[in-house]
Amino acid sequence: MLVVPSMLDAVTVHAEGALCTRIATLQLVEDRVPNEIQLNGLPLSLRTGTLRAAVRQGPPGLTIRAIRPTFDVQLPPEVDVPQEHRALEEALSRVSDVTARLEVTRRELQAVGKLKPTFPPQKKARYTPHQTPLASLLALTSFVDTELATLNARQLDLERELRDAENDVRLRRQRLHEASSSVRGERARVYRAAVLTLSGNPWPRETPALIALEYAVPGALWVPTYDLRLPRTLEEGTLRMRATVSQNTGEDWTGVKLSVSTAALDRRAEVPELKALRIGRRQPPPPRSGWREPPPGLDELFAGYDARRAPALTKPRPPPMEPPPPPPAPAPYRADDEITGSGMERLRSVPGSAVRSAPSSAPKAKRLMAPSAPPPRPSAAPQQEGARSRSRGSFARNQAPTEEEVLAEAPGDDDDMPMASLDLADVDGAMGGGGASVDRLSAAPRLEPSDSLLDYDRLTLAAADDLEGRGRLRSRPTHVTRELIALQAMQIQVNVLSFIAVSEQQVASLRHLPLPTWSVPPRESAMHFDAKFDLESRVDVPSDSAWHTLPVLSVPVGLSAEYVIVPSVEPKAFRTVRVENRTPYPLLAGPVDVTLGDEFLMTSPLPTMPPGATQRLGLGVEESIKVARNTRFDEATGGIFGGATMLTHHVSVELANRLANRILVEVCERVPAVPTGYEKDIKVDETETAPPWQKRTPLPGETPVEGERAWRVVLQPGEAQTLKATWTVKIPASKMLGGGNRRT
């Protein structure tokens, strides 16, 4: 079989799992198209039911007939033992050389360190003072310092070289140890592989064919993140979408075209079959796609196999103890008998038929009548019964029945007449009906396909020895997979099942990987739509179960800065940015890293934004905007007869812009809300607002507040402005609480 190398070209990461595409370049072998090729290096975690292959580029006649999964074992490259031995000897020689030079250097250091000035001994009787040679002493000291510095530097270099040489020796010895065949077997790696069956006509060698292999693997996740860069003025900015990907599929994605999708990988997306409504005579339903009825004459297909196999299974018939008595004359058949003489002749000519005795209470229509025979001698009765039973057994296995065996004795009925009964099901089975009744032969039920019979990947063909199911496809047991069948053909001493178990554990561990802060899984944030995003360039994602952030694309959005103030809650101004999605695809929920100028500001959560939606993104407190809120409350009586209480509220908000740019400020206030059902009695009148305010419309995802009002004002650099509002609450005397607090 031809092994064709392949490389991973594209990967689409779904909400859970990934769809990988490999590209293989096929060249002609001896100017002919190979019947089968094998693509190795597939990960162990792939789902075999998702294997698909197609000819991406090649001659028109080249087609892929079939594809099946299998396993592949890759061993490490062979080690050249003589070369490693020579390398080890060289490393040991280098260690000895460096050690010798290091010893010499250390002895020189000791010798130079012992250098010091000496003076000749003086006799005490003749001692005379003399001048000390300072120049010589200084020269000696300088020489010692210089030599010690040189020798110390040389010693450090030799010690470093000795460590490297010792590490090289350990490396060479480890390689020699790994050159053993037993150790190399333990280091074997098991992969999946795909075998493709091809057909077609040869093509020119100058134009190789490209074959694309597609398969799905679990153990891959992604979540969206964003990067928002704003200037100090918040007037414009850029939003970039990023994909944070983690995978532990068993293969590294190196230089692949990566795409991310919100769709579920295991969801079946098939075109529904709409049933047509017709007026007229009822028609049988059309056959399902991919289903064919069993071919006629399936049993005759194995006639030669059974005829060749029968002599091997036939045992020699034991000789009878005594010759059987002469057959009695057959009784005349009645008109109500269902089995005629022609039927008996057919019964005699069919091999493999069987006769079963029925009780005397069976219907007469299903029994054959025989005249009484003289009773045998008592001494010969057991022998005749044994011979008769043995002859029945051999008849049922090997040859056609004789008339004596068909007309066996049975207990008598009321007329004391022995009878032999023959079930119609046996006769029908002997005639080729498989044990069915005569009525069922005339109208056999039509076999309806089920979903299990359309799952061709899990169907198996029964063996020829299986008389009931041979020649027909049936569902394979769930515990018997193609992988286990392929393992039976492996002739290496590798525990493949342990490799598969480890791979499944690694894939399952990815589900417990904690998500980044503010991240939301795509299936939760995508709501009722699915989208796919293609990365701008090829990327690398190792299989290490770690999060890797990759740039996806620049998102064209509309950005407008606003400052929101709620002075009744907190007298501070909060920076916000209105983000409008101007793309034809949704922006999923995720964290946004906000950079203000050249400084990282904060990370904020961004909700899901369908195309055309607008959301508000908070950016923290702006200290350069000063806010002050002042209130005054007045209580008076009013109404026609002075029985109503008038509660007047005066609110003033002072704003001051200390920024160097023009800003838009939204100031939110709240007026009292009248409970439902009291609108006729309690009145709230907004008497004065300067400048005028309006009811605030919340953005999608924001909680509406009853009675909320908002000022939207523009402040120039250094400008200060005062906002005023007055409203009056009119409460009749019948709705007042005696001694209650009316100011809350």
From TrEMBL:
Keywords: Coiled coil. Residues 402-417 have a biased composition (Acidic residues). Residues 148-175 form a coiled coil. The keyword Zinc-finger does not apply. Pfam families: DUF4139, DUF4140. The keyword Coiled coil applies. Residues 283-297, 316-331 have a biased composition (Pro residues). Residues 11-111 form the DUF4140 domain. Residues 276-421, 685-705 are annotated as: Disordered. PANTHER family: DUF4139 DOMAIN-CONTAINING PROTEIN. This is Aspartate ammonia-lyase. It comes from Myxococcus fulvus.
